[in-house]
């Protein structure tokens, strides 16, 4: 067998290796935190000027109301100015959404694992989501239908779960045609409760399916841009799912609609192990 000296050297080398790996992990955690803080700070700083832009655009929109009753020679200039003001308003609203979603994402990334999970009544979540999305849905003549049992409970953060389901329903509406249906279904199981959000919309091509949960990834640029999306909604949903120990999946056919399934824990997390009884010596 190898002399003791060699053994010791091997052990020492292994130890160095482990130490280097540990240092790498610490360093990459530190870098991740620096990156997260940077994004959070920039986003936060951008909120104020973007808010100001939106207010200014609104003031411009008011100031460029066409005169009643008869349009005069100046109307054309006014109309052009109004169109620019509308674009500024539209784009600044989009920047506002982007910044809010970036902030949300950095908050979620910093919050792993979830602080003490609480029981969350899915009835409340569904009612909240339907309420939040009512205006956008009805503008497109889309019905958001719910099927599922009353009184289902999952464990986690009510606001995060409501955000995740809202994002899925908003997408279902955004990527669907007029007068279609969006179905929300809750399917309880022993360990997990699944929430399905199904639409009859444009669907997703197979090569995009794996990537849509990445930050800023958007399947079809042209189509996506028209919705004013940011490419962050599904990354947020994925983070919320994993923070809860659950997951989010999708099945879809291009042109044939999509179904997103959010799986959340149906049981409270393991209660902490009882302290070992004091031993008498
Ligand atoms: P976005 O702000 O672009 O909607 P998301 O992260 O929410 O960003 O979604 C990423 C991309 O996934 C979208 O741009 C779109 O291409 C695709 N997508 C998401 N949900 C749906 C859906 N229900 N039907 C079709 N495509 C979808």
Automatic annotation (TrEMBL):
Top-level EC class as recorded in UniProt: transferase
Substrates-to-products reaction catalysed: ATP + protein L-histidine = ADP + protein N-phospho-L-histidine
Superkingdom, taxonomy of origin: Bacteria
GO biological process terms, semicolon-separated: cellular response to phosphate starvation
GO molecular function: ATP binding; phosphoprotein phosphatase activity; phosphorelay sensor kinase activity
Key words, A-Z: ATP-binding, Cell membrane, Kinase, Membrane, Nucleotide-binding, Phosphoprotein, Transferase, Two-component regulatory system
Subcellular location: Cell membrane
EC number: 2.7.13.3
Biased composition, class Pro residues, residue ranges: 266-275
Residue span, Histidine kinase domain: 41-268
Designated name of the protein: Sensor-like histidine kinase SenX3
Organism, scientific name: Krasilnikovia cinnamomea
